[in-house]
Amino acid sequence: MSDNDVRNHPSLKLALMLSAFSALGPFTVDMYLASLPQIMDDFDTNASLIQASLTASLLGLGLGQLVMGPLSDRYGRRKPLLMAMILYIAASIGCAAAPHIELFIAVRFIQGIAASAGLVISRAIARDRYSGVRMTKFISLLTTISNIAPLISPNAGSAVLSYSSWIGVFVFLAMLGILLTAISLWGVEESLPIERRVRGSLKTLVENYISLFRDRSFMGYALLNGILFAGIFAFVAGTPFIYQNIYGLSPVQFSILFAMNGLAIMVGSQLVKSMAGRMSERLMIGIGLSLSFVSTAAILIAVLSYGSLWTVFGSTFLFAISIGIIGPMSITLAMEPHGQIAGSASAVLGTLQFALGAVISPFVGIAGENSAIPFGIVMLVTSVLAIVSYIVVVRSDAADDDHSKAQSIIRRSKRGI
């Protein structure tokens, strides 16, 4: 990227624009949560089918990235993003106009697929434009801004409901889609030149995914990122019951503490941004993993000993800071060697987050809504698995590379080279 390009595309401006697309995921999932009872009454259905509409959108967000990522590698970033935003508008209107719950669930799945483009392509654009320390700093800035969305989306939904029905929520999401379509048309410049795009058939796209899965370093960082974000899913699933049922907080008090953990992720991301280039990447990840382990161990000890609310909250706050540290670093280090297929690499990273979150988070409630012990165990297990993933996959791969380089030097020296 030339100096002229840097001046024309300041990091903050680009981060604000890309974070708007990243925000589509949280808004799609969170904004309608407060309206679920109203939707259940209007469709005259049961809670199970209403929950299925949430599951459908999450599946769309997870699986859609596997489609949108390769499409952006083949056709460029701008065109698939624009098409996805138009599809998002149509899906949002379809949700608002759905005559029965079955169609509502189906359209929510499509809405999730369309929203997934914002998540996966925003990371791919970041990789197209930046590398090395500059990418680390930019991803940290993007993470900081993007974490505003989960803080405001539930409240935005409640605000719309105070003036309208649940249909108004999806009309609002359609309007958000229109805004992002306009940004796609006039704000997003193509970041993937034609000569760098992936050529070939579906077989080529599959081979690209296979190459990523065979890359030990990539999969190590992807698993590290996905496992710890599964801890965030467990936190989201468990804390509403723990804070309100066990510690007796009101919904408003819970919302405040929940938002504070979003701020903690932003703090961790800012630490990475400020230390990038001044501290080694391995040391930063080591600090993040250590903080993750200590904080989740403290969570488990607190719930086993019936510790105070502030002990649990303080420990989860520190865990969220560790996510803010590890998230940008793991994304940068995973995608750095795969600029040619950044869309596919971004898709694997995002899908693993949703897939592992879907597997791990249900264990939080295995002992009922009045026990926090499974929550503490799950949180600690995610930290331990992340550490194991990093040591066994990433560090061992680096050690193998160092050994291979050393052997090559020895062989060349014996030949007199």
TrEMBL record:
Domain Major facilitator superfamily (MFS) profile: 14-401
Protein name: Bcr/CflA family efflux transporter
Listed GO biological process terms: xenobiotic detoxification by transmembrane export across the plasma membrane
Pfam families, per database record: MFS_1 (PF07690)
Major location (coarse): membrane
Single GO molecular function: xenobiotic transmembrane transporter activity
InterPro entries: Efflux_drug-R_Bcr/CmlA, MFS, MFS_dom, MFS_trans_sf, Sugar_transporter_CS
Membrane topology according to the record: Multi-pass membrane protein
Species whose genome carries this gene: Paenibacillus cellulosilyticus
UniProt keywords, alphabetically: Cell membrane, Membrane, Transmembrane, Transmembrane helix, Transport
Family indicated by similarity: Belongs to the major facilitator superfamily. Bcr/CmlA family.
Location of the protein in the cell: Cell membrane
Annotated transmembrane regions: 12-29, 49-69, 81-99, 105-126, 138-157, 163-188, 218-242, 254-272, 284-306, 312-335, 347-366, 372-393
UniProt lineage: Bacteria, Bacillati, Bacillota, Bacilli, Bacillales
Keyword check for Membrane: yes
GO cellular component term, pick one: plasma membrane
